Amino acid sequence: MDEDYHQANILLAKGQRQEALQRYTTFIDNWKPKYDASNVIINTDKLAMAYNNRGQLHYLNVDFYLAIEDYSQAIKYDHDFAVAYYNRGQIHYRLASHQLAIDDLQRALEIEPNFKDARSNLMQARRDLELQLQGKSSSDIITTSN
Q: What is the pTM (predicted TM-score) of this model?
């Protein structure tokens, strides 16, 4: 099972996206929880990363809703996974769900206060939400300033 995860990472690094997607899916489908003495699941790190990476592949394939599902699963298995919050926030932003984007980007910054991309994208999402509430868009501002 770990071999699927390892191979998926290699395929992803080589740019073999479809093959990597299949390997991550195999890893996720075959993952089995391991428990500590307190009956707490202890082996979720790779699972969260596999969901995040598969989410990125879905994003690159413009399968935004599948990507959101995978990022949400990554967060389920690692509540402090700043990159997964950031990635999900980026998709919400692209779908013009600015408040959801803001929520995710804020959470990413709570976890990783020095996450520069999350900070700049959060500022943009806030500006765009304000414009959306005013019935305008970023392109309206660009068009009217010329």
A: 0.89
SS (H, E, C) 36-100: CCCCCECCCHHHHHHHHHHHHHHHHCCCHHHHHHHHHHHHHHCCCCHHHHHHHHHHHHHCCCHHH
List Cβ neighbours of 11 (8 Å cut-off, separation of 6 or more): 17, 19, 20, 23
Query: Partners of 35 in the beta sheet?
Result: 41
pLDDT by 10s per residue, the chain, length 146: 799 999 999 999 999 999 999 999 999 999 999 999 999 898 999 999 999 999 999 999 999 999 999 999 999 999 999 999 999 999 999 999 999 999 999 999 999 999 999 999 999 999 999 998 998 766 655 544 44
Q: Report d(CA 140, CA 135) in Å as an integer.
A: 10
Query: Which tokens go with 91?
Result: 């998709």
Q: Residue 41 forms beta bridges with which residues?
A: 35
